[in-house]
Amino acid sequence: MKKLAILFGGHSSEYSVSLESAYSVLSHINKEKYDLYMIGITKEGKWYHFDRDVEQIRDDTWWQNPLHSVTISPEPTQHAFIEMKKDHFIYVYVDAVFPILHGQNGEDGTIQGLVQLSGIPLIGCSLMSSALCMDKYRAHAIVSQMGIKTPKALVLTSSSDLNTFKQEIQKLHYPLFVKPMKAGSSLGISKITDFSELKPAISLAYQYDNEIIIEEAISGFEVGCAIMGTDQLVVGRVDEIELSQGFFDFTEKYSLKTSQIHMPARIDSNIEKQIQNTAKIIYQALGCQIFARVDMFLTPENEIVFNEVNTIPGFTSHSRFPNMMKGIGLSFTEILDTIIEMGLAHENHRFTSN
């Protein structure tokens, strides 16, 4: 039986989303196949070994019980976490690390770098691809070199003088999206229709990152494609986000109050195939491995425009990634088995090849 470290929570604005994803994963994972070593990370960034009822993860009371502090050993020959007991510490060997973390300090390469130092196999994208996909502007720059269209955009930093960029901003066509460069779940994003709305939108975005991206809105609708694998890719069905108003912000993503997700998307098979092929090109161009969700726009002219890649997409029972994979006949448990086995096989191949 493989011992699998599951990381959840996180020092991130998407802490609550991680708890929901982790609860769903822990409820569906094959416990006869994997020995689970659960590690919760508080909102303040403290790491604890958690060994109680997963219901406490869902209702965010997991951290209230006395827990042992834990950290990861950077020594690659140990493949272990270090658990601090009252008067001593122990090494806990694990076969792989599966981070179920979203946003900053979880999906941006930070955790992936720690795991890479430890030598423990990682279930998910590498440090490089995680950091790159989190950086919307630089990800767009690479994807555009592959001949795939991206939105016109401009980048500001916290030290930027807005007046200096006023002329450049005026070259963009409204409506515009103002986004934190490295945040997920649509947190800190505003859609504006006039220059007068720009300052408050920028102020909101700076609450989540010190870099922001201002980009033109794309007419049409958003589509997504779930992918698993590294060399040989498994591609899910394409889904479609239908909006009745506004945009797919944090509230809509997790409540669907005025929007609807169609899976499969209401498009013909040829367009779906084009979207899947484009998603595979983007996935490989950005160095993704094991699993990720590629989000794009489909214009009224059936032109595909790249939006972003989520390297740790939501894993709740109603999340888009598992539902797209269910569209090709995989159950939630089979999806988890597949990505875990892919992660272990990829690491074994990497070390054998070297």
Strand order of the largest sheet: 6-5-4-3-2-1-7
**Residues in β-strands, percent:** 25-35%
Low-pLDDT regions: 247-255, 349-354
Basic shape: globular
Rounded to an integer, what's the Rg over CA atoms? Answer: 20 Å
Our measurement of the CA-to-CA distance between the termini, rounded to an integer number of angstroms, reads: 26 Å
Structural class: alpha+beta
* Topology order in helix (H) and strand (E) letters: EHEEHEEEEHHHEHEEHEEEHEHEEHH
Count of separate DSSP helical elements: 11
Major sheet: size, sense and barrel closure? 7 strands, mixed
Number of strands: 16
Q: Mean of residue pLDDT?
A: 90
Binned, the helix content reads 25-40%
Question: What is this structure, in a nutshell?
Answer:
This protein is α+β, with helices and mostly antiparallel strands and 354 residues long. The protein is built from eleven helices and 16 strands.
Structure, explained:
It is a single chain. By secondary structure, the protein is of the alpha+beta class. It is built from 11 helices and 16 strands. The protein has helices at about 15-30, 55-60, 110-120, 125-135, 135-145, 160-170, 200-205, 250-255, 270-285, 320-325, 330-354, and strands spanning about 1-10, 35-40, 45-50, 70, 80-85, 90-95, 95-100, 155, 175-180, 190, 210-215, 220-230, 235-245, 260, 290-300, 305-310. The strands form 3 sheets. Strands 6-5-4-3-2-1-7 form a 7-stranded mixed β-sheet. Strands 14-13-12-15-16 form a 5-stranded antiparallel β-sheet. The chain is globular.
